[in-house]
Structure formats: structure tokens, C-alpha cells
Amino acid sequence: MISIKIHENVVACCDVELVGKNFEEDKLFLDISKRFYEGEVFDEEKIIEVLRGASNLSLVGDKIIVLALRGYC
Q1: Which of 20, 23, 26, 56 sits between 20 and 30 A of 13, alpha carbons compared?
Q2: Tally of structural domains, the chain
Q3: What is the distance, to the nearest Å, from the Cα of residue 45 to the centroid of all Cα atoms in its chain?
Q4: Residue 26 is part of which domain span?
């Protein structure tokens, strides 16, 4: 499942199981906040449609990356 939240300037897409988690490695930190990433869940066809219509994307997670590449390639 993939969550999509459309903001004014960016479409945030994230594998649902990652929403709300934080990752840290050395001096790098990634906050996958619910405020930014938690949104609606769509089927694959609708997700690809949304991705193709967006000019700025924030993608987090293996599933959304694979789906995005499949939709664009």
C-alpha cells in the first residue's frame, strides 16, 4: 500500500508502513512525518497517473520507487 498526499508544490508518496518513522545514519536523518506523507491510498493505476501529472515528487520506500520506475520506463 502506498500513501499519497498532494501539497501545493510537491506530491509526497510513501510506502504506508514507513509513515511516521525516522531513520538516522551518521549525520543523515530522514523524518517520514505523518503530517507530510500520510494521505490517501490509491490503486497502482491511479498512483501512476498522479506521478505522471506531477512536476515535483518526494518518494520514500521500495514499493513506490519500483512503481514510479515502472510507470515512467
Answers
A1: 26
A2: 1
A3: 15
A4: 2-72
**Angle 14-50-18 (CA atoms, 0-180°, nearest 5)?**
5
Q: Which residue has the cell 518513522?
A: 21
Q: What is the CATH number of the domain that holds 15?
A: 3.30.1860.10
Give the distance from CA 1 to its chain's centroid.
Answer: 11
Bridge partners, 17 (sequence order): none
Strand pairing class (40-41; 2-6): antiparallel
In tens digits, what is the pLDDT along the chain, a chain of 73 residues? 899 999 988 999 999 999 999 999 999 999 999 999 999 999 999 999 999 989 999 999 999 999 999 877 6
pTM: 0.85
DSSP state of 16: G
Measure the CA–CA gap between 41 and 5, rounded to whole angstroms.
9
